[in-house]
Design goal:
Elements (H helix, E strand, L loop, with lengths): L17 E2 L2 E2 L2 H22 L2 H25 L22 H4 L1
Antiparallel strand pairs: 1-2
Helix pairs in contact: 1-2
Length: about 100
């Protein structure tokens, strides 16, 4: 009998994927911003004119990209940040009468 074959396991990069200035999930957000701009610009150019389509594409894609950049600056993982102080009562009960004697 022969020994079982050993295969190398690829564990990935162990880091978030980076494309230009976008990291991780924000790459997809940026791609969605561009696609939304192209679709809305295409619809506006069909309905109105090519100039209106170009303006619409810019007016949709750029604010969405800026929104994506601002969300990325907040962090890769969105967490709620509370600005208050929590006071947690103790669960242990002390026998104070034993200390007096």
């Amino acid at each position: 009998m022969s020994a079982p074959e050993q295969y190398k396991i690829f564990k990935g990069l162990q880091r978030p994927l980076v494309f230009k200035i976008f990291k991780g999930k924000y790459i997809y957000w940026a791609l969605g911003s561009v696609v939304a701009g192209v679709i809305s610009g295409g619809a506006a150019s069909i309905i109105f004119s090519s100039m209106a389509g170009a303006i619409t594409m810019v007016m949709v894609a750029i604010p969405l990209m800026l929104f994506t950049i601002s969300k990325q600056k907040e962090g890769l993982f969105s967490k709620t940040k509370e600005e208050c102080i929590y006071m947690i009562p103790s669960q242990t009960k002390l026998d104070r009468s034993a200390d007096i004697t």
